[in-house]
Amino acid sequence: MVGRPAGGSRRRRLNWHSGGYMPFIWPALLITLAVIVFPWVFTGWMSLQNWQVGAERSFIGLANYARLFSDERFFEATGRTLLYTFLSVLLPLIFGTIAALVFHEEFPLRGFLRGIVVMPMMATPVAIALVWTMMFHPQLGILNYLLSLLGIPPQLWVFDPGTVIPSLVLVETWQWTPLVMLVVLGGLASLPSEPYESALIDGATWFQRLRFITLPMIVPFLVVAAFLRGVDALKSFDIIFAITQGGPGTASETINIYLYLQAFSFNDMGYGSAIAVIFMVLVVALTLILLWLRGCTGWREAQG
Amino acid sequence: MSRTPLQKLVLFLVVLVVISPAFLFFLWMASLSLKPEIDNTAYPPVLIPSSLDWSNYSAMLNEHDFGRYFTNSLIVTGSAVALALLVGVPAAYGIARAKAHKLALVVMIARMTPALSFLIPLFLLFQYLGLMRSLWPQIITHLVVTVPVVIWIMTSFFETLPIELEEASRIDGANRWQVFRLIALPLARPGIMVALILAFIFSWNNFVFGIVLAGRTTRTLPVAVYNSLTYEQISWGPLSAAAILVTLPVLLLTIIAQKQIVQGMTSGAVK
Amino acid sequence: MIRSFGRTTRRQFLVTGVAAGAGVGMPFVRRALAATNWRKFDGTSIEVSMIKSPRGDIIQKNLKAFEDLTGIEVGLEQVPEQQQRQKSVVEFSSGRPSFDVCHLSYHVQKRLFEKGRWLADLKPFLDDPELRDPNLDPEDFSAAGKAYATNEQGELRSLPISVDYWIIYWNKDLFQKAGLEFPQTFDALIAAAEKLTDPATGTYGFVARGMKNANLPVWASFLLGYGVEPVGPGLQLNTTSEGALAATRMYQHLLTKTAPPGTIGFNWNECQAAFLQGKAAMWLDGVGFAPPLEDPTKSRVVGKVGYAVMPKGPQAHASATFGDGLGIADASQNKEAAFLFLQWALSKPLQAQLLQTGSGVPFRKSVLADQTVRQGVKMPAAWVDSVIGSAEVSKFGLPVVVPVTEFRDIFGIALTNTLSGADPKDELQKATDQFRPILEKSEA
C-alpha cells in the first residue's frame, strides 16, 4: 500500500508517489508504534508466564490460554460483552437518528440547544457515572421517583442481576446518542436536494420521504456511526467500573472488568495478560468485520 | 419553508423531548451539588434547595488539592495535545495526499486497543526508566488518545482541500514540505482548531491511565474526583460538586465551540 | 500542638518507662533512659501511601505536628481502598515502590505481604534506643493485633493501627414501637427482623451488604456464630459444612425477606443511607460507620441509634474482626525516618483521637483502658461499650491466606447468587470447588 503510486497521470509525471510523503507520517507512526507495540509484545510475553505478583515467575507456555478456554466465567463475560456492545450500538443508533432528524430542521436557538445535547458525550465519564449511581438508588434515587410520578412501581436498576445490563446500557445510550446524532447530521447535510424536490412534486408525505429517500441514503453514515460506537462499547470500562464494578455478582462483568479483576485484584498478571491478548484479538476481529461491512454497504459513495 | 402553528408546536415538543435527558441530568447534578446532605438523601427528592449551599464546593476545593490536580490535568492534556498536533497534522497531510489509508488504520488500531492491555507493561517500563514521579508517563500515554483524534480529523480535512493549488506550486518548484507549510497548513487552520478541541476533551476526560500511572503529586482531575469518594459516609453533595468541577471546563468548551465540534465530528466521521 | 505532644511524651516516658523498667530489669531501664531522638532525621523526606479512611484523615490532619516534631517532610496520600491495595501490590512487586510507608489491610493482605517479603523487619529499630519511643510496646497490642502484625517466623514487620469490629446499629425508635427488645441470639435476631419488616411503610428489619466482596464480613459474622472457620488448619475448607450452610441460609433469609429491595447490590453506603433515613431497624457493619449517624446534617436518626455487639450464635459468640496496620517498605532508603513516622502514628494522642472521634478503634490496650481517653469520646457510651464487648469475643473475619481477594470474590458471588434465588447448598459447593485449586496453588 505504502509504495503504491497514486492515480492520475499528471501526478505520476511529477513523481508524486506516496513514498515521498513518508517523512510526514513517520513521527506519528513511530510514536504510535512505540506506545502500542512495545506493550503488545510485552503482554504477549507475560501471557506465557505463570506470574502471580509477589511470587516467582516461570515460563508455562500456553497454559494460561488452556485455562482460559475452560474458564466458564470468561465465556460468560464474553457473552455479556457482546450483548452489552450490541445494545450499546443499537439504541444510540435509533435515538441518535431521531435526534439528528430533529436537529436537521431549523428552529430558534438550534446551535445552543445542539450544544446541550452534545454535552453528555463530552462530559467526564467517571463524573457522570457517579451521578448516575446516585440516581439509580432504589430507595432514594430520582429515577424511581420519576417513575412513581408516572405510576410505575420502583425498579432496582443496577441493583438487580436482571436489570443491571439494560440500566448500564441506558447510561451508555444517554452518553453516546449525541455521537450518532453528529455523524448522521453530517450525512443529512450532504444529501442532494433533487430527490426531495421530485418527491414533493409527486405529493409524497413527510413519512414517505423519510422512509424512501432519507433513510436509505443515510445508511452508510449509520454504518460509520455503528463502527465508531461498536469499538468504544466493546472496551467500555469507566462506566461499568464506577457504577457496578461488574456486579451484582458477576451480572455485569464484561471482559474488560474481568481482565482488570484478574490482573489487579487477583494479581495474576500472566492470566490477566492472556485475557488481554484474546480480548485484543476479539476487538481487532470485530473491527475488521465492521470495516468489511462498511466496504460492502458502499460507504465510498457516501463521500459523494 | 414556513410551518403551520401545529407543526411548530409538534416541533417544539419534539425538541423538548430530545434535549431533556441531557438537560435534566445536568440540572439534577447541579442541584445535588448545591444541597446539604440531608436534602440529597430525602425522599421524595428535593429539586430546588431551600437555600443555596456552596459548602460542598468549598469543602472539595479546600480539602483536596484541586489547584494542583487542575494544573496537572492542564499540563498533561496540554502537552499531549500540543505533541499530537505537532506530529499528527503532518502525518494526516501525508496520509491524505498519499492516500495511505492502511497507515491510518494502524493509527486507528491504537484507538481501538483496550487501555488496560497496555497499561501494565507501560507502568513497568516507566518505573524502570525512573519517570514515575513526573508527569511524563501520563503525557506519553495520553498520546494514544490525542494522536488518533488529530489524525482522524485532519486527514479528512486535508482531503477536502483542493489539490490543484498544491500541484501548481509544485510545478513552480516548491518542495513537499514548503507546499505543506505555506499552502496546506494555513488553509487547514479551522480543522486544526476542531482537532485541538476534541483531542483536548477526550484527553481531559481520561480516567484509566491515571489510576495506574498517577501518584500523589501527579494526579489528574478525574482520578482525584474518583479518589474523593469518601469511605464510611455518604457524600452525594461533595461528590456532585467534584463531578461538576471536573467536567465544567469541557462542558463550557462544548457550549462555546459547539459549532466547530459539530463540524469536526460530522466531517471527520464520514471519512 | 507539637510542643504539647513532645512534652506529653517526655512526661509519659518518665512514668511508664520507669515503671516498666522496674518490672523488666536493668537493661531496659538503661535503654529507656536514652531518650528517643525524634530529630535525628531532620531534613529527610518520606512518602506515605494510605487507604482513604477516617484513620488516614486523622493522621493527615495532624501531619504538621509530626513534621514540626521531627523535621521530616511527609508526602502523604490517601487513595480509595481497592485502588490503594492494587497499587501498593503492583509497586512492591516492581521492586521500587514510590512510598516508604504503606498502609495495609491485614484481613486481605497479611499473607500476601509476608510471602512477598515486601516490608522491613522492625526489630532493629525497636532495639535502637535512639529511635524507639519507650511508650511503644508491642505487648500493648491486643491479641488480634499481635496475631495480625507478627508473621510465622515471629517477626514484627508492621504495626497494627486500627481494628474494625462488626457491630449492629439498631434503631431504638422502631424497636420501641414494635415493643421489642434487642435480640441476644441469632434466632431472636431473625424473629425481630421479621417482625420489624413492613414493606407497606417501607421499613425493614435488617440491612447489610449484598454486593459481592463487600458481603463477606456479613456472612463471616454468621459463620463465626455457627462455629465455622472457613479455612481450617492444613488448608481444610469448611465452607460446605452444616454450619456454613446454616449461616448461608440465614444470610439469604435475612437479606431477601427482611431487607429493602436491591440489597443484592448494596455496599455499606446504600445500607447506611437506608439506616440514616430510619428505614432499617438493624444494620450490621463495621464499627467505624458511627459518626455520620450522630451528625444532624446527615442523619434523621440522631440520638435514636443503639449500638450492640453481634448476638450469640448457636455455637459461639463472636465478633468478626478486621484490621489494618502500617509497614515500612523493605526497599525504602529512609527506613529510620519511616519508623519514626510509624511510631508517631501509633502514639497515644493519635490513637486516642481515633477512638474519640469514632473513626476507629486502636489495637493498643492501654489507650482503650484509659479513662480520660474514654471520657473524651464524642460517640454515645453505648458505642464504646459495643467496642469493648466486641473485643472480648473478637475473631478474625477472613481466613489468613494469600488469595483472600479470590476468596471474597468467589464466595461473594455465591452469596449474591443465593439472594437471587439460588440454592445455598449448590452455591457453596460450587464456590468451594472453584476456590480449592486456587488456595492450593497459592499456598504451595
List keywords for this structure.
heterotrimer; A: 304 residues; 71% helix; globular; disordered C terminus; B: mainly alpha; MetI-like fold; 77% helix; flat
What does this structure look like?
- The complex is a heterotrimer of chains A (304), B (271) and C (444).
- By secondary structure, chain A is mostly helical.
- Chain A has two domains: 1-33, no CATH class; 66-302, MetI-like fold.
- Chain A is built from 14 helices and two strands.
- Chain A has helices at residues 9-13, 22-46, 63-69, 72-104, 110-122, 125-136, 142-149, 164-189, 194-201, 206-234, 238-243, 255-265, 269-296, 299-302; strands at 49-50, 58-59.
- Chain A has a two-stranded antiparallel ribbon with strand order 1-2.
- Chain B has one domain (65-270): MetI-like fold (Orthogonal Bundle).
- In chain B, helix 7 (136-160) packs across helix 14.
- In chain C, the strands form two sheets. In chain C, strands 1, 2, 3, 4, 5, 8, 9, 10 and 11 form a nine-stranded mixed sheet that branches. A two-stranded antiparallel ribbon of chain C has the order 6-7.
- The longest helix of chain C has 23 residues, at 2-24.
- Chain C is globular.
- Chains in contact: A-B, A-C, B-C.
- Chain C: Keywords: Signal, Transport.
Report the helical percentage of chain C.
Answer: 40-55%
| Biggest sheet statistics of chain A | 2 strands, antiparallel
Instruction: Going across the biggest sheet of chain A, name each strand in turn.
Output: 1-2
Q: Which oligomerization state do the chains in this entry correspond to?
A: heterotrimer
CATH class of the largest domain in chain C: Alpha Beta
Shape of chain C: globular
Radius of gyration of chain A, rounded? 24 Å
Distance between the termini of chain A: 23 Å
The helix content of chain A is over 70%
Number of domains of chain C: 2
CATH domain fold name of the largest domain in chain C: D-Maltodextrin-Binding Protein, domain 2
- Determine the number of helices of chain A (DSSP H or I, runs of at least 4 residues): 14
Looking at the overall shape, the CATH architecture of the largest domain in chain C is: 3-Layer(aba) Sandwich
Largest contact between protein chains?
Answer: A-B, 97 and 101 residues
What is the H-and-E element order of chain A? Answer: HHEEHHHHHHHHHHHH
* N-C termini distance of chain C: 50 Å
Main location (chain B): membrane
Pfam family, one (chain B): BPD_transp_1
Keywords (chain B): Cell membrane, Membrane, Transmembrane, Transmembrane helix, Transport
Family (chain B): Belongs to the binding-protein-dependent transport system permease family.
